[in-house]
Write a structure and sequence with these properties.
Layout: E1 6-10, E2 15-18, E3 24-28, H1 37-51, E4 63-67, H2 72-78, E5 92-96, H3 103-113, H4 119-123, E6 133-136, E7 159-162, H5 163-168, H6 173-191, E8 199-203, H7 209-212, E9 229-233, H8 245-257, H9 270-291, H10 300-311
Parallel strand pairs: 6-7
Antiparallel strand pairs: 1-2, 2-3, 3-5, 4-5, 8-9
């Protein structure tokens, strides 16, 4: 590998790397204990294969290769691409890289939401060029701001865009909610996984998606974010579910464990109640299209909704 890799992200499972000349992302299993890139490889591959025959609106990075820590041939050829402190072999997953937002979008988000004193450093920061946005449809920022700490922080990597910000920017948050609901229906009833700890991000579409085998891009247009997609990633905590009440309970538990991507029932704000209704109706509609009326499992989506609303 005659290139130099740069770290573009980090999570509980490990660090994520890419080069300026390649379109792939390399995720290392060098994070916390108990996380498994092999499980992510299995669940991501299963998801891509299961959804390949369906028309859907979520983008998923193509999965290229799982490399084990004892693959001496690969590591001997490629380990020098990492900085010295990361020149240790480990399990590795190679996928498409989700493209970051361009400078115009980054500057808009920075100028609107970054503490004033940090704006120059964020605009000139190389790590903040790796800008993906997490749409937090299920959470609003507090209306009353607490006194700002002197230890301010801001990052465009996985920037959390809360629903009040989405509304402020006049972006269609209900559309994101509907795509998330449709995606969960496919994951539960087609892929048969619980979607535990998956992540949704907003990012531009891949220009070469048709060639790489990625999910077909459903593009959303916005004056602020430009053309972008809702992407799904991070499958390492997902587990298979049975198509019965036990599986539904498992899926409900995973829904509430996740970050606040999804609308939640029972919120006092009328706007949040409307978002939950949009999500609920889409989930039931997509589930019915997948399962049909005569399928004995057709009762499960209604049970899932009932349990989610009961637990609120």
């Amino acid at each position: 590998m005659a290139l130099e890799l740069r770290r573009i992200g980090q999570g509980f499972c490990g660090t994520v790397w890419a080069s300026s000349t390649e379109s792939s992302a390399l995720k290392r299993e060098d994070g916390g204990p108990g996380r498994s890139l092999y499980n992510e490889y299995r669940m991501l591959s299963k998801t891509l294969q299961s959804l390949s025959i369906y028309e859907h609106r979520i983008c998923i990075p193509a999965c290229h290769r799982y490399i084990q820590s004892d693959d001496k041939l690969w590591w001997d050829s490629n380990i020098s691409a990492y900085p010295k402190e990361f020149q240790v072999s480990c399990n590795l997953l190679v996928t498409d890289r989700i493209p970051p937002f361009p400078v115009g979008v980054r500057d808009t988000i920075t100028e609107r939401y970054c503490p004033q004193a940090l704006i120059p450093s964020i605009k000139s920061s190389r790590p903040d060029e790796d800008c993906l946005i997490r749409p937090y449809i299920g959470r609003r920022r507090h209306a009353k701001r607490q006194k700002q700490s002197k230890f301010q922080a801001f990052s465009l990597r996985n920037y959390p865009l809360h629903i009040d910000q989405i509304e402020e920017l006049q972006i269609d948050g209900a559309l994101y909610a509907r795509i998330m609901a449709e995606t969960l229906a496919y994951l539960y009833w087609t892929v048969h996984i619980d979607a535990n700890d998956v992540e949704f991000v907003l990012a531009p579409p891949r220009h070469d998606q048709a060639k790489t085998g990625s999910a077909r891009a459903y593009t959303i247009s916005s004056p602020i974010l430009g053309d972008h997609c809702l992407w799904l990633l991070d499958f390492d905590c997902c587990k298979s579910i049975s198509q019965d009440e036990t599986g539904v309970h498992q899926a409900v538990a995973a829904f509430y464990k996740n970050d606040p991507f999804y609308p939640r029932p029972g919120k006092p704000d009328d706007r949040d109640q409307k978002l939950w209704k949009e999500f609920k109706n889409q989930f039931l509609s997509s589930s019915e299209a997948i399962l049909g009326h005569q399928n004995p499992e057709a009762r499960l989506p209604g049970l899932w909704i009932a349990l989610v609303e009961e637990r609120r």
